[in-house]
Amino acid sequence: MKISVDWIKDFVDLPRELSDRDISERITLGVCEVEGFERIGSVLNNVTVAAVTAVEPHPDADKLKLATVDLGAGKTARVVCGAPNCRAGIKVPYAAIGTTLPGGFTLESKKIRGILSEGMLCAEDELGLSDDHEGLMELDSDASVGIALADALGEESVDDLILDVDNKSLTHRPDCWGHYGLAREFAAVFRTPFRDKFDENWADTLRAKIARGADQTPPVTIHVDPDSANRGFLGLTVDGVTVGESPEWMKRRLNAAGMRPINSIVDISNYAMLETGIPNHIFDRSTIRGGKIRVRRAGEDQVFVTLDGQDRKLFPSDTLVCDDVGPSAIAGVMGGLHSSVAENTTSIMIEVANWTDAEIRRTSTRLGLRTDASQRYEKSLDSQQLEKALLRIYELVLELNPGASAVSGIQSDNMSDPVMMTIDTGPGRIAGILGEDVGTERLVEILNALGFQVEEIPGAPAGDDGRGKTHRIHVPTWRSTKDVECEADIVEEIGRIIGYDNITPVSPAHDIEALRLSPAKTMMRRAQDFLVLRGRGLEVMTYPLVGEALLDKASWPIHNENLVLANALTPEHDRMRPSLFPSLLQAAADNRKEHERFRIFELGRSYADLGGDEYSSDLHQVGILFQETTENPFGKLADTVEGLLNYLSLPARIVPADPDKAHPLVPASWAGSHPHEFADVQVMGQSRGIVMSIHPQVSRAFKIKGRTAAAVIDFTEIMTRPVKDKTSFKPLDRFPGSEFDLTVVAPGKSYAAGVIGVVKKLNIKEIRSVLVLDIFALPDGDKALTLRIELRDPGKTMDAAFLKDAEERIISALNKAGYPLRS
To answer: Is the pTM here over 0.85, yes or no?
Structure first.
């Protein structure tokens, strides 16, 4: 958005000693970000009127011409020019060598295609007068040659500083989208008085003029449907207008603000919006069919032609401004083509309204039509400013059309009540937050300059620390629309005006203390450490959102239909996952493409679909997956899970389970459950985990070659309990122990736990540990288990006879239990 400082000076006098850069920097620090600035208008005093006396083609360029120009006082110049309208007999602006044009470009003497150009003939955009670059700016034929262009245009003062403001820095400040509101900010920043030209005396004068025709029957009636997006609607009918060219001062300011002049009525509309910050729309009254204006929802899909001649597809929920026959404008966005002001318009209907910010943004975004009006409505404007904008438009209409008059007074409907907001605070509280003592007098001065009203709260104590709420701040209506809402906002107002760069930086006086992790976080960190350092796994992170296709691929029967997102970005991520197993299998499939064997784990969440009022439950789980090419990883995975639970000091055991029966973590008869290698993990006496080999049928669905084992442990109910370190320390053994390995044959459907149990039940106190070294299948369907048994007596060295006897007793017990030695 472009801001004219010359326009700002209508309301406030700025210190003369300030440079352009000073103004830009102060406004950036105190109000909004100024991305750039440039000085325009002063160039018009350095550019003169020249008469083109002769034109001949350039010898080395088809599109260039050599123009001989009369500069007055007997001086001439030869200029290389490429403008299509360059011809003998016209008078144009001439910039001599050394002239600095808008944008900082200074003319230098140089050759253009081999011929020296003695200056430059200018178009309007090159002088900062408009964006027109179709050709040279042609001046009146009676303009005197050699005089300054400013004198030829009849401009008294056209020197102006233009600030280019970043719109994003004003998103929360709807009052600053006009020069009137920004001028108040300039006054506060530079500590100069604000001249409110639009005060009550001014308003009363215009109301009196309008009231002269208030007894007439309204030629246009207004009705606003309660369910529309409207937040206030004012209308005024004016007769006796003439559509023509706007005066130079108005066109100059519109051009400076980046808006192209069109005609006097349209320019008045745009000028008032740029000044007050309130958009408006001016109808040709003769196009309002039936003499009625109705604001309503579209009610059905339809196509509407806007001012730019484009067809716009409207939805039933869009709000329209209609006449008695059909739509005349898309509310808050753009007017219609058929109701626009034409050259023969003599009577107009001025509309100044306010609209619901969110609805205007949705409509304009959907239509791809972001206008100056919609950008302002999106910021949540103050409906109490509508009358001020309407009166300003009427004043401008009277200035350009002295014979015009209002008909039947101001029509209004659906005007909302003002938002009256007060905030209690005090100078001590503000100083405590800012870290800078402002003082009561300065605080009141700043807030009054910004339009706030400040009063002391009678009898309010300042408090022992001086931070009591001693003052009540009355927030102006133009700042209470989603802008100033709490005490912190008042502190921000004070801080930005005194300047954050003027606050002495002080280090915060806070003790730095180490934070203690929660029990849940501690348990998860320890689980991570174990699975990486001892389990030799790599952590993966998968999405908690999955799609129905993945669940079907894993043959997972639970689809969490009640946990499907209403606005999912893709079908692949449209619901909360019911289990970690499908996600782990997909991660395994992706990794199997690059690695023949790997171990992965995830600390994540799955979601139980509870239905009803409870809706869902978050389950904090650890998923582990081992993948091998030929070896069976089930035993190693079971050992890792057992080691993890021991490391976490959780009482647990792994016992055989039936895959055909329901388990808290696996549905009954899941296709991915292995019929034999399926074990329940019981923690604190309850089933809280599962260890299994993945059935080849599901592995093939994911194209996972080799053998896969997976486990899921649910920590939801136990992770909040503090982890107790039950590590016990014992002295090193003084006497040697003995290990021996043996391989036994077991039925194919049996578990290694059964074989280990036989050994541990023997009444041999010297048995220190029993480990499974390997498991492999035999051709006849049985399987072989290799065990390693450690014997150790803490009080003496075991002799050979005892070791021999112990080995025989172990082998005999295994043989009787159905686990003979493999021959």
So the answer is: no
